[in-house]
Design brief:
single chain; about 270 residues; alpha+beta; Ubiquitin Conjugating Enzyme; 2 domains; 4-stranded antiparallel sheet; 7 helices; about 20% strand; elongated; E2-Crich; E2-ntca
């Protein structure tokens, strides 16, 4: 049975209604549940089977913009429901389709909330914008997991930043937590500079171990710093690309980076 045939079975018992279909494509309507338990607005969806996967978009831009990275809507209106490199999905069985449909329902529910709040809910669980930035994000998540749950939390809450400084002929990268330095890296070597300083992991709060004696945490802290910086730069390039292509911001999200980069591109061109 095809993925679309399985999907038709799934949507008819999970908040959706099949409308019509043809070769490789179907149209369905769905009303996600709101937090209050009431039904939300109706979304008319176009769902296509492409290369053994399912691709969904709003059939016409009624409830959603045609493109909005901040709302995880790709160019062309397709929904960014998951990152295939980190979470490859299969579409061969009904449980596979149910998992994908569940992700779509969560996505639409968040769209309703985002439209009201003008910011993306659950931002800490979202993937970075663009493949390159997503890879840096994954690398940062792996490094944070080695350092302990508190590092995973501050990474998810976007409380880690970096700053590049120069010192004695080399570029140094400072990793900051809430604006306060927690590590300094040699940027060229991508290594922690003060290995005798106390490790920042949770175990060291009790054992007070230096980085040199605390598992592989010197490497993890260096990976974390480089990856946090790499993600920021990759996302900047992502938005600059669309701004230079004169893609306009939809105006539905406060603090949208695309709007900021578009304004900067206009000023540079003036």
């Amino acid at each position: 049975m095809s993925a679309l045939a399985l999907l038709r079975e799934v949507i008819e018992v999970n908040r959706g209604e099949f409308i019509r279909g043809d070769a490789g494509r179907m149209f369905a309507s769905v009303r996600p549940l709101l937090d209050s338990g009431a039904s939300g607005p109706t979304f008319l969806l176009e769902i296509a089977e492409v290369s053994d996967t399912l691709i969904a978009r709003e059939a016409a831009p009624v409830n959603l913009p045609c493109f909005c990275p901040e709302r995880h809507i790709n160019s062309g209106g397709t929904f960014c429901l998951y990152w295939d490199e980190d979470e490859p999905l299969s579409f061969s069985t009904r449980p596979d389709i149910e998992l994908w449909w569940g992700k779509l329902l969560i996505f639409l529910h968040r769209q309703i909330v985002a439209g009201r709040l003008r910011r993306w809910p659950g931002k800490g669980d979202a993937r970075a914008h663009g493949q390159e930035a997503s890879r840096f994000q994954k690398r940062a998540e792996i490094a944070a997991s080695k350092l302990g749950p508190s590092f995973e939390t501050v990474l998810r809450e976007d409380r880690l930043t970096t700053r590049t400084v120069r010192g004695k002929g080399s570029r140094r990268l400072r990793l900051l937590l809430d604006g306060k330095k927690i590590a300094t890296l040699n940027e060229e070597r991508q290594q922690i500079m003060t290995l005798r300083s106390r490790c920042r992991c949770e175990r060291s709060n009790h054992r007070r171990l230096p980085l040199t004696a605390c598992e592989d945490h010197a490497g993890a802290l260096a990976d974390l710093g480089m990856s946090v910086r790499g993600r920021v730069e990759a996302e900047r390039r992502f938005f600059e690309f669309f701004a230079e292509a004169k893609v306009t911001c939809c105006g539905t999200m406060d603090g949208c980076p695309l709007a900021r980069h578009s304004d900067a591109a206009v000023r540079e061109a003036a």
